[in-house]
TrEMBL record:
The keyword Translocase does not apply. Residues 17-192 form the Glucose-6-phosphate dehydrogenase NAD-binding domain. Transmembrane segments: none annotated. The gene is zwf. This is Glucose-6-phosphate 1-dehydrogenase. The lineage of its organism: Bacteria, Pseudomonadati, Pseudomonadota, Betaproteobacteria, Rhodocyclales.
Length: 494
């Protein structure tokens, strides 16, 4: 086993203000990620983490909230009492309300009491508060040249609302200060996709329509909406997963090599992919898209209710979407990208499957068996890793028999390290001011420009909402979508 070559380089001193510091995202993701980076020695002694929300907690009471979050969301093996004590010593708390001036003077005094340093504002609150928060930050003169703001999804519910959010934030922060988080981009596998493509001779010459037959990107969840059905019903699978995560994965898979691994160079290339997506609208949405909702079925071996029963009212909000996308450029002409995501599917998995074309000529006779196509599988969830499927001779004296085997690379095993959570890397990138793994506002706008006409077509054509039993891989219409093209979904092709 080779060991990790990673070295921990401390970031500069910073103040991180977490608006929504008492919320679920802070407890589940942000505080544990910061704790891990602190325990690894990456956070300097005088860095401060300042929780803000409306409830009137003392610092001590908030420290209890932080300790409880670490208890729940950090594995016991990963924490020592000393590391926890060191971490909570950085914690501050101030009550302040985005929609009034209460508390903001105290926040200004606290921030101004520190030495000159990086100042990061993390908006872990509902997006309706992004504009009022930005305005208060400006009103109280909190923006310094070394300030940054981090925006959580969802960034709007369509192109117009996303523009409104981006415009409001842009009145206060320059684009170079805005970090739009898509935590999928912080995953090791996603960065490995770039390493595989651009740090190896092997793949890039084959990475085009001459050698690639089609690409599948799946983000499947086994859970349903549960008690979040009210919120989910205003969103749906396309807004929740496809418009952001899946389209970002599509961009990184399909983009041209940037001239440098730098924020704007990478984001310029991703933007070109989004702009080259063939439009889907009233004319072709029926053929290119499937929307669906889960019905009653099973989950984890137990009966599970359908979406409408959980919601308690009628709705057309999709819990599943599948799309046949095409990129109209020289590299990808004629190569379909099948995208799908859904809740209450068979299992939780996120993967990109690059299917290569068949070999040009088969020299083996029928006794050798079928020559399978090569596949490159990039798994993001649940275990991150990359598998390259190749055909070899079945070992032994029994003549030439061919067999497809996986060349497996499970990162955690290979490097003897646990994969860091995506938020760990992304939060440190915010402090370092590295925007490579964050979305630029024109990318967000271009993604909505592709998605908005699909929503419009669904409404204008009153496109059918298919049903699928909870615990299956989605509706038969999604199978038909890919099989019309003579291909099958990855899990059906084993
Ligand atoms: P949450 O648990 O409801 O937390 C919301 C936080 O905002 C609370 O700390 C709340 O505290 C604070 N808040 C509400 N109104 C405020 C105001 N007027 N001024 C200042 N603070 C205010 O929500 P969440 O799950 O953490 O999600 C936050 C955002 O991140 C949402 O937009 C969500 O969609 C997004 N997100 C969440 C996750 C996740 O895993 N939870 C993942 C991705 C994205 P007070 O009530 O005390 O003010």
């Amino acid at each position: 086993m080779s060991s990790s070559s990673s070295r921990t380089i401390q970031v500069s001193p910073f103040d991180l203000v977490v608006f929504g510091g008492t919320g679920d995202l802070a407890a589940r993701k942000l505080l544990p990620a910061l704790f891990h980076r602190d325990a690894a020695g990456q956070i300097p002694d005088d860095a401060r983490i300042i929780g803000v929300s409306r409830r009137p907690l003392s610092r001590e009471a908030y420290v209890d909230v932080v300790r409880a979050a670490l208890d729940q969301f950090v594995k016991t093996a990963d924490k020592t009492p000393e590391a926890v004590d060191r971490f909570v010593a950085r914690i501050h708390y101030l009550p302040a309300d985005a929609s009034s001036e209460a508390g903001w003077g105290d926040l200004a005094s606290l921030l101004n009491s520190g030495s000159e340093r990086v100042r990061a504002f993390y908006f872990a609150v509902s997006p309706d508060l992004f504009a009022p928060l930005s305005q208060r930050i400006r009103q109280f003169g909190l923006v310094t040249p070394e300030s940054r703001v981090v925006l959580e999804k969802p960034l709007g519910k369509d192109g117009a609302s996303a523009r409104a959010v981006n415009d409001a934030v842009a009145e206060v922060f320059a684009e170079s200060q805005v970090f739009r988080i898509d935590h999928y981009l912080g995953k090791e596998t996603v960065q490995n996709l770039m390493a595989l493509r651009f740090a190896n001779r092997l793949f890039e010459p084959l990475w085009n329509s001459t050698h690639i037959d089609h690409v599948q990107i799946t983000v499947a969840e086994d859970i349903g909406v549960g008690d979040r059905s009210g919120y989910y019903n205003t969103s749906g699978a396309m807004r929740d997963m496809l418009q952001n995560h899946i389209m970002q994965l599509l961009c990184l898979t399909a983009m041209e090599p940037p001239d440098a691994f730098e924020a704007d160079a990478v984001r310029d290339e991703k933007l070109k992919v989004l702009k080259a997506l063939k439009r889907i609208d009233d004319r072709n949405a029926e053929q290119m898209t499937v929307r669906a909702q889960y019905r009653a079925g099973s989950a984890g071996g137990k009966p599970a209710a359908g979406y409408l029963d959980e919601l308690g009212e009628d709705s057309k909000t999709e819990t599943f979407v599948a799309i046949r996308a095409e990129i109209a450029n020289w590299r990808w002409a004629g190569v379909p990208f099948f995208l799908r995501t859904g809740k209450r599917l068979t299992k939780r998995t996120s993967e990109i499957v690059v299917n290569f074309r068949p070999i040009s000529h088969n020299i083996f006779d029928a006794t050798a068996g079928r020559v399978s196509q090569n596949r490159l599988i990039l798994r993001l969830q649940p275990d991150e890793g990359v598998t390259l499927e190749v055909t070899i001779k079945d070992p032994g004296p029994g003549g030439m028999r061919l067999r497809r085997i996986p060349l497996d690379m499970s990162f955690a095993e290979t490097f003897g390290v646990a994969n860091p959570d995506a938020y760990e890397r992304l939060l440190m990138d915010v402090i370092r001011g590295n925007q490579t793994l964050f979305m630029r506002s024109d990318e967000v706008a271009a993604a909505w420009q592709w998605v908005d006409p699909i929503y419009a077509a669904w409404a204008n054509n009153d496109q059918r909402v298919h049903g699928y039993a909870a615990g299956t891989w989605g509706p038969s219409a999604a199978v038909a979508l890919i099989e019309r093209d003579g291909r099958t979904w990855f899990e059906d092709s084993e």
